[in-house]
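Async update (no meeting this week)

Hi team, since we skipped the sync, here's where things stand on the single-chain job. The sequence we agreed to prioritize is pasted below, unchanged from the tracker. I ran it this morning and attached the output directly underneath so nobody has to dig for it. Comments welcome in thread, and please keep replies under the output.
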Amino acid sequence: MMSTMWLKFAWQNTLRNRRRSLVTVSIAALGTAAILVAGGFALSTYKALAEAAARSTGHLIIAKPDQFNKDEDTPLQHGLDNASALSASLLADPEVRSVLPRVEFSGLISNGDKSTVMMATGIDPDAEFAVKGPFLTITAGAVLVSGSKEAEVMLGEGLARSLKAKPGSSLTLLASTSEGALNAMDVQVKGIFSTGVPDMDRRFIYTDIATAQKLLNTKRVSSLGVFLNRMEMTGAAQQRLAAAHPALKVQTWLDQAFFYKSVRDLYNRIFGALGLIIGLIVVFVVTNAMAMAIIERTREIGTLRALGTLPSQLLRTLGLEGMVLGGVGAIAGALLALAVTVFLLLVPVQMPPPPGRSVGYPLIITFDSAMYLATMLSMVALTVLASVWIARKTVHMPVVDALAHT
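Output:
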């Protein structure tokens, strides 16, 4: 009952100067909304990059330890033998959704008149595109299929342009075999794709595993990408599979997600500084508003002190005023941020391509209840501390000096 009375008293005091209270609430609301929108954008970016990294490599990557730690003298020197049997044992785990083999190699690709460097990946086409979904933008032709009678490849858009190739064109692949000899193979272009990264599109090709192994004269694969039912299972699955296959090394998608780590570290610094600046602005505005309110009420405070009101009671009242202003502002800011989040879901906004990419991406603001709660509580705490800090000198002023204040 007593706390309700003090809160009602604080609320009535904030209404004594509505214009100043409105400015304070507006600053707190805009600060809260800015932090939540910026934080939601960062979270959506982290989530999108994490999903893209896991979709590219698999939640887990299994290979021989030297595959991760040493350079190869010849292609697939550190490759996996008996990949089919290993895949079958991995699929026995109930949390494993799919296992995708990969053969990674490099060499030259030629149209007869011009040769250029290629970075190639051999895949199981049917499983690859079924598990990963549409992770490539097909600009011409079609995707690879298993069991084709002819050796086929998919070219990056920039590489196809450089070689003047189109679906149906004949090209020649040249690479070193696993024994160190040179081998060449004629292939047909099945499709042309874009990854959205021009540098990759100028070098990258896909072929099926059978074609890659035939060119390299081996039955090995570079690694196995393990896709789990949910990303949250990654840590436990890594420990379980590493214990089951001690001769192999099991990495997570995060171990190879260098771009994701760089962007996350950059955004953490940017949004951390942004949050600090917004917090300081809110503190200064609330401090200024409370300072003016307290200075104007110095004689009132002196009268209350003369009537026997304790300094701690006055600090409580003024702190509650700051809490009311901060609380109303935090709620208004949270509602504003939520409205922006819903608006962007209903009316998609396309962001321009980031550096190094040729395609944009949708602007999405993630709603995270923990972030909302932490931001709102922080905003209320800031306003309360600012109010108490600025009021502590006035409430401890001698009663005679307070009553004589003009």
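Quick observations from my side:
The chain has a mean pLDDT of 85.
The first strand starts at residue 60 and ends at 63.
Reply here if anything looks off.
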